[in-house]
């Protein structure tokens, strides 16, 4: 009886495939292990597959994950904050924790290995987060914090030195809390993402200087006309403005920015602020697309360091897309020596620097690395055992 190609796959190839599956679904080890004996063996021989755990599952199930993951650090999702007691025995191994909020009687034990904390709403909802519970003593190595709602006037005296922060203020008190949190970690912050959901009358109490900030992304609702925070960013290099205000940038201190991504603007005045821009990525209407090309070609002193200009086609109709391609086919920069031809596509072509990206995004990039390794492994495997078309899924034993 002929053995299927999948059954003959070496452990290294199966391990790479299964690790990618486990990153997308914590249930993958259980499902993959039920396919056949060889897969079950591969699953149990790789403790890293068991390091992503949903504590909402039955106690005996997440206990099995804790045991089978060996000494690997853990990525835990705790849907119900009262279940935090379930992770006490592995608290020293938790690297990433997702939880809606912390209960008032939060245990005193700490999380020495934790680098990423995500306090976000789940299907259970819950009260606001008490910043008094996020301390250096409890989370000494915390570097990335993602937080939705906090109590007004948060106390951030012992906040760990965060390197990246995601905040989602929805009203005036939450904007005030956001300002306090940013101010508390201003000396260490490298990456900041602000998503404002609705209009606010809040005005910044005082300027906040962020000397180490390198990446800033702002995504706000249409009725927010200006960012209610006064941020000073002397070393900013990556700025992404995804707001729905057509008239102006949410953040204007962009003179040092080298990589700039904008959407939906009806004005081209931002060009006068982009002194250091090397890469411009724009998601605009057709009329603004034409205006940007005209302004940059006419005045070579605008964005004088520009090397790459990309347009995204999301806001273009089919006929406008055709016209845009025709325009670019005959377009010449004239006085901009060495400038690459502008492009338009349904995706961004140039990748922005990754070393400013917080850990939870680095985890995503790790998948890309794994996929690359997996590709090489599969190519080597196919060259030895046969063509890809011969790959069969083994029958369940």
From TrEMBL:
Q: Superkingdom, according to UniProt?
A: Eukaryota
Q: Which PANTHER family match?
A: F-BOX AND LEUCINE-RICH REPEAT PROTEIN 6, F-BOX DOMAIN CONTAINING PROTEIN, EXPRESSED
Tell me what this protein is called. Answer: F-box domain-containing protein
Source organism = Serendipita vermifera MAFF 305830
